[in-house]
Amino acid sequence: MKRDVETGKPGPTPEHTFATRLLACVSYGAVSVSITLFNKAVFSVYKFHFPAAFTTMQIAVSILYMYILRHFKLMEFGRITRASARAVFPLALFWWLYVVSGVTALRYLNVPMYSVFRRSTTFIVVIGEYMMFSKIPSLPTMGSILLMVVGAVVAGATDLTYSLPGYIWVSICAVSTAVYLLLIRMLKDKTGLSQSALMLYNNVLGLPLMLSYMVVATDEVKQVPLFPKLYDATFLAFLLLSASQAFLLNLCIFRCTTVNSPLATTVTGQMKDIITTGLGMFLFGDVVFNMKNLLGVCIGLAGGIVYSLLSYSERTRVVKEDRSKS
């Protein structure tokens, strides 16, 4: 239940129309497809192999955009407090981990393999929703989720561009993304902070984490100034556009998760993966086609499609039952 920002007491949860829910899902899916391809292009086309510096720029740009939007009264959030920062820190930590691992995984994996392994996020979200909200999926839904997992296993076992670092990073990304989505829903109700405030805390707390990681765990502080295209106007414009999409993606994830649910966000993620996988097979020239590997990717996609259809059907049924009772 939503809480009042000033009093902290529970307040009424607003009802959202079907059009609002649909727009939230479509916006998240479209931006997610775009940023995946743009981020991959930064690494594959421009050869900018500095994920920590890239992510730091994304966070800094997001904070700048938020304060610009607040200045023009297009976004509302108050001053940062220590108590709220402590409460939101777990969310910021998993968001930082999800961003870093996702960007780093794209450095090692082609887009289809990245997408097929990201689908395991759904399985983790289902487990989390059961543990946190006592939500039990139907048997057909569990069957479709297992189909996605089988697809990932087959694709990984037959990947001719095998990359252990890539698999490790994408696994971390799947787990941290699932925890992040679950925490958004839980902390929004618990803290009473608005969507904008949660986003601000996310970025402000994530920036020192990212800077510390870049300085301590990488050599990017020394290597980035040596990058040959660092002052190329076209590259810088492309980098800024990609970083701007990171802010927009975070906004869309918050919107989709709070207007709908963590599960709805992962369903949307499954659908956008179909587009991302198809485009990724041909855009960057780093996919080595193999029938068994392609079969694994297709199995994962099929599981995602079935899962999305079942989830939509189940949600529609629940809405109709609630309306009939009222």
Automatic annotation (TrEMBL):
Superkingdom as given in the UniProt entry: Eukaryota
Keywords attached to this entry: Membrane, Transmembrane, Transmembrane helix
Coiled coil: none
Main location: membrane
One Gene Ontology cellular component annotation held by this UniProt entry: membrane
InterPro entries named in the record: Sugar_P_trans_dom, TPT_transporter
TM helices/strands, residue ranges: 48-68, 88-110, 145-162, 168-187, 199-218, 230-251, 263-285, 291-310
Domain Sugar phosphate transporter intervals: 25-308
Presence of the UniProt keyword Nucleus in the record: no
Topological relation to the membrane, as annotated: Multi-pass membrane protein
Annotated localization: Membrane
Pfam families per the UniProt record, alphabetical: TPT
Keyword Membrane in annotation: yes
Family matches, as PANTHER family: SOLUTE CARRIER FAMILY 35
Protein name: Sugar phosphate transporter domain-containing protein
Organism annotation: [Myrmecia] bisecta
